[in-house]
Recover the amino acids of this structure.
């Protein structure tokens, strides 16, 4: 029976046979085509290379291992590298270090087929160290045979654009500020009282004398022209609809009857509890004179515009910075832009980047000599990306602007380029031919040689032309052959397809096939010769490999069967006999159909032969029959071998018995689509079934439903009865759910205690409700688990498709949202999805935005809560606790925002900020001679996922050392350690550089004694949930006692968290707990408050007061 290794060896053999066959065929075709159509081939190659190197954007090819295999000149120039320097680099080497990890993932997804392509803006590092911005497109480029093994990168330099965008943003900001300052009058309206106060300028603008204030708002509104009142009223009403501000223009009627044009803006200064505006402030400005001036200027410019627009040449006007301020119709037509699109652009942005320096020098020269005008040629980039060759006649204007007339010189340029292109094509045709060319004089001295042959031999043109006889480049054997045949060549003047061996400069041998023709004088004597050489290295290797293949044919573990063009078997190998039982004598001369099992129909075989006829190859699974009559599955590849004319001469079939593989695949398929614990469909099969249900509903305009089910308080079962009981419960629930509906429904376990039910067709939502009621009822029935009768409930969320969502991802999200709505409703219930349920998600988004602003605006605060050494009453250390203090709000505890930070990358930034704050505080306390103390810092699982986390902390620690007695502890929750086993190594590294390691919230997970021994832990912190229930909770009391005993048995320090009562303190002291922390001693303190207590160093009197004299001896020893 075939093994995986046999299968692999056979595939290698088949691939090798196929490659060798194709290589020999390609070589024969190449030689023939080279003799007949060399010029056509060379032109095609030249065109392709010209396109690659002639485009105005950067192009590069990147291999699967991330190295450059090719790049055009634009790509090299943008990065500042020579071609050979760039090819020596990896693609990630040119990326900004901050982008490398993300781009590595993008490349992997592209190569794995998970992404079809990628487009985005990236930062590249030039050879000179400068950062440039590029617009990047990455796509997978197909290779021979359809394999996708490389990436094609296309880039455009957008550094200027990015810089311009930043500058425009700053300018816009400055202009906005200037306009704000230019407003002439201010006012303030209190909506609660209806009273308005205004500046004297405001009264003046309205033609009124300042009067005793406040006045009603109507005092001003009544002066507005009646027909202009509606837009003003709508603007003010918008503030009551939630808008922050408005701007509006209107006319007012002055006391003398004249009208004045006003620009006004208003903004809400404060709002009430329900969002209604309390106080609105605003400004007003007289813009009448400005409008008159603008109209006068427009009249003047119109006369100039008539002449300007009708000029036949393009005319452009730019300011000192080279920014277009105007352009006529001809210029816009030439460049393909509208006037509005062109205005505001920089002329340098339309200049080829290679000409930017020349353009800058030209403009500088014009600015130095205002009387000077200059006529120069440039290429301006049109809107469609093409470049237009133009002649610019440029001069400076007295006001510092410059004007240029633009003349299209495309026809002139095309004529010049055609001449240059023809000359270049002639040179390239010779130099870049796929074969070698050289010319010899009568004595055999090289007088001309093309670049291809130079590259083959490794010489420069200067080393060979006029200096070397061709015999100097031949091996001794080939020299003898040359001397023997040269007289005959001089006589006949021609030689065809003679093999020679040339010596490369490095001493290696180059086998070539030579054809030569002589150039004769008038008397018929050979004056010189022209020689064509073809590299036949691949042909020689192919011959050798064919000999090897013949040996492999008989020794491979894969069956090989060869037929002629009439599909008659002509050869089989030993593996064929071993697998099928047929000997060569049994099958040679017969048709392979004798192996047919009848399991696959005629359509299958038609498809097989269609593939072979169309593509020359077929590969797939097929069922054959052995000589014994036993059917077996085989993985077979059939290749059609063709001659020079394209006619099929034979078929090569390679196959192996995959019976064992098929059995394994079937087992793996079951495992892949089935939940191992419950036997229900898993998430993978659920996703497939849901996609099918959605597609069916779309095709037939039907409704369906998705029910998301989560068991209520399942964790309590796990915590109290153990994981095995939890598993038993899940199995029982799965069995009940299996009885709940029709066969076409899909019931899946998605993970943990989460289940999903797909109803592919419901007549109305009530059908889904009936199913949900049934499920809730079934789950809530008592059951025996681990020998105990327990009752559990379920919360069910219902989403209807296509009403609530039309795609699987969104449908699952809204069903989840509805399920959490059911939990909030009181558990043991079901809930249909409603759009308002997404409010919770919006709140999370608001927290995320607020946190990002908090980090930038320094709204985070570190408080310190001391830990007390119970044996001495001394302060043993403090824990750094982060708080968020938004402006005009109270202090927010971590419970309200840390979970959001954990779901994003913000936890990394917050963690770094806390560590920096702690280091700064240590330095400050050292300077103030505060007694040394250890400060504990909490670290999340997400922070440890950063591969550079430990190194970053090492650097921060080094920057603020020495600590002179101060120290830093790292606190990690027990659940974090269990969910991220790799954290253990990071903790060892942290401990090695001086950190003390504590396990926080201990007792909430399932850490074993053996696992704790393997960790570099110094301290266990008992979770506050156990301490809270002391002394009334016997379970919590027992757990706390066990943790203290276990910690001491491991030589660890044990800390009780959340000690708030005297009874709790007495308990942990009696149990021998080492340290305690909680509101009974200290709430979280500011740095200044904590410093005061650190200077005292002890809370012994308080402990004696709480515990009594019986404990006094503990601190007197």
């Amino acid at each position: 029976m075939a093994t995986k290794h046999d299968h692999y060896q056979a595939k290698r053999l088949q691939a090798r046979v196929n490659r060798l066959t194709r290589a020999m065929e390609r070589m024969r075709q190449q030689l023939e085509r080279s003799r007949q159509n060399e010029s056509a081939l060379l032109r095609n190659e030249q065109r392709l290379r010209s396109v690659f190197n002639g485009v105005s954007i950067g192009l590069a090819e990147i291999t699967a291992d991330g190295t450059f295999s090719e790049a055009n000149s634009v790509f090299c120039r943008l990065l500042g590298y020579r071609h050979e320097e760039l090819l020596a680099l990896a693609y990630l080497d040119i990326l900004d270090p901050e982008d490398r990890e993300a781009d590595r993932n993008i490349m992997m997804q592209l190569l794995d087929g998970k992404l079809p392509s990628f487009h985005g803006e990236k930062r590249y590092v030039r050879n000179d160290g400068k950062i440039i911005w590029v617009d990047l497109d990455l796509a997978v480029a197909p290779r021979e045979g359809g394999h996708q093994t490389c990436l094609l990168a296309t880039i455009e330099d957008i550094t200027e654009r990015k810089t311009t965008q930043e500058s425009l943003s700053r300018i816009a900001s400055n202009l906005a500020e200037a306009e704000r300052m230019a407003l002439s009058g201010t006012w303030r309206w209190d909506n609660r009282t209806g009273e308005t106060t205004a500046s004297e300028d405001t009264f003046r603008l309205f033609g009124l004398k300042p009067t005793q204030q406040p006045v009603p708002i109507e005092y001003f509104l009544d002066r507005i022209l009646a027909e202009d009142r509606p837009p003003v009223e709508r603007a003010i009403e918008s503030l009551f609809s939630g808008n922050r501000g408005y701007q509006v223009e209107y006319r007012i009627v002055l006391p003398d009857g004249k009208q004045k044009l006003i620009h006004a803006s208003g903004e809400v200064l404060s709002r009430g509890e329900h969002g209604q505006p309390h106080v609105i402030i605003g400004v007003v400005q007289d813009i009448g004179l400005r409008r008159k001036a603008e109209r006068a200027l427009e009249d003047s410019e119109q006369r100039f515009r008539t002449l300007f627009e009708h000029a036949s040449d393009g005319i452009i006007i730019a300011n000192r910075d080279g920014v277009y301020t105007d352009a006529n119709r001809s210029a816009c037509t030439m460049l393909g832009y509208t006037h509005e699109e062109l205005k505001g652009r920089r002329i340098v942005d339309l200049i080829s980047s290679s000409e930017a320096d020349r353009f800058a020098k030209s403009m500088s020269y014009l600015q130095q000599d205002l009387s000077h005008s200059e006529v120069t040629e440039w290429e301006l980039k049109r809107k469609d990306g093409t470049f237009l060759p133009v002649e610019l006649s440029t001069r400076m204007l007295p006001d510092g602007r410059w004007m240029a007339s633009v003349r299209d010189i495309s026809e002139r340029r095309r004529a010049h380029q055609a001449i240059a292109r023809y000359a270049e094509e002639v040179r390239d045709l010779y130099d870049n031919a796929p074969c070698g060319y050289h010319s010899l004089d009568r004595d055999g001295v090289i007088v001309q040689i093309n670049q291809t042959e130079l590259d083959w031999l490794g010489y420069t043109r200067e080393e060979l032309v006029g200096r070397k006889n061709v015999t100097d480049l031949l091996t001794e054997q080939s020299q003898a052959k040359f001397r023997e045949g040269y007289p005959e060549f001089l006589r006949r003047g021609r030689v065809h397809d003679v093999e020679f061996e040339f010596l490369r400069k490095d001493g290696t041998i180059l086998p070539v096939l030579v054809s030569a023709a002589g150039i004769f004088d008038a008397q018929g004597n050979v004056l010189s010769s022209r020689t064509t050489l073809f590299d036949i290295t691949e042909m020689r290797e192919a011959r050798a490999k064919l000999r090897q293949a013949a040996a492999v044919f008989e020794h491979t573990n894969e069956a090989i069967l060869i037929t002629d063009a009439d599909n008659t078997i002509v050869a089989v190998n030993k593996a064929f006999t071993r697998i099928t039982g047929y000997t060569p004598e049994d099958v040679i001369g017969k048709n392979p159909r004798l192996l047919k099992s009848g399991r696959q129909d005629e359509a299958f075989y038609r498809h097989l032969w269609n593939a072979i006829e169309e593509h020359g190859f077929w590969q797939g699974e097929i069922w054959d029959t052995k000589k014994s009559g036993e059917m077996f599955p085989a993985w077979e590849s059939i290749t059609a071998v063709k001659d020079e004319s394209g006619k099929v001469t034979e078929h090569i079939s390679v196959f192996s018995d995959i019976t064992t593989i098929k059995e394994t695949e079937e087992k793996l398929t079951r495992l892949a689509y089935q939940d191992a614990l419950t036997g229900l469909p898993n998430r993978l099969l659920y996703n497939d079934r849901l996609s099918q249900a959605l597609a069916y509903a779309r095709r037939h305009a039907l409704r369906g439903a998705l029910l998301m089910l989560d068991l209520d308080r399942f964790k309590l079962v796990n915590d109290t009865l153990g994981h095995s009981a939890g598993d038993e419960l899940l199995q029982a629930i799965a069995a009940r759910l299996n009885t709940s509906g029709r066969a076409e429904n899909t019931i899946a376990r998605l993970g943990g205690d989460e289940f999903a039910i797909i109803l592919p067709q419901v007549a109305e939502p009530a059908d889904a409700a009936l199913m949900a009621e049934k499920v809730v009822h079934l789950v809530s029935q008592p059951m025996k688990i681990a020998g105990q009768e327990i009752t559990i409930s379920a919360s069910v969320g219902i989403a209807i498709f296509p009403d609530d969502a039309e795609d699987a991802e969104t449908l699952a999200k809204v069903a989840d949202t509805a399920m959490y709505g059911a939990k909030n409703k009181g558990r043991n219930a079901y809930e249909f999805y409603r759009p308002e349920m997404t409010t919770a998600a919006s709140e999370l988004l608001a927290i995320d935005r607020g946190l990002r602003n908090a980090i930038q605006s320094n709204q985070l605060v570190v408080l310190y809560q001391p830990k007390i050494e119970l044996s001495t009453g001394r302060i043993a250390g403090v824990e750094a606790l982060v708080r968020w203090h938004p402006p005009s709000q109270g202090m927010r505890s971590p419970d309200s925002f840390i979970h959001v930070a954990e779901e994003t990358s913000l936890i990394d930034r917050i963690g770094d900020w806390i560590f920096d704050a702690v280091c700064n505080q240590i330095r400050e306390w050292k300077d103030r001679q505060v007694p040394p103390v250890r400060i504990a810092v909490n670290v999340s699982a997400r922070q440890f996922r950063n591969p550079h986390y430990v190194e970053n902390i090492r650097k921060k620690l080094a920057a603020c050392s020495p600590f002179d007695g101060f120290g830093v502890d790292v606190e990690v929750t027990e659940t974090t350690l269990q969910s991220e086993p790799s954290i253990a190594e990071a903790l060892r590294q942290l401990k090695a550089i001086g950190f003390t390691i504590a396990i926080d919230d201990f007792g909430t997970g399932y850490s074993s004694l053996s696992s704790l021994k393997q960790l570099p832990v110094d301290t266990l912190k008992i979770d506050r949930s156990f301490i809270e229930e002391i002394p009334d909770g016997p379970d919590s009391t027992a757990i706390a006692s066990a943790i203290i005993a276990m910690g001491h048995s491991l030589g660890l320090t044990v800390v009780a968290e959340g000690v708030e009562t005297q009874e709790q303190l007495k308990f942990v002291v009696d149990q021998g707990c080492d340290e305690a922390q909680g509101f009974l001693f200290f709430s979280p303190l500011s740095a200044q408050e904590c410093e005061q207590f650190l200077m005292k160093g002890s809370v012994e009197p308080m402990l004696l007061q709480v515990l009594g004299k019986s404990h006094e001896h503990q601190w007197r020893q």
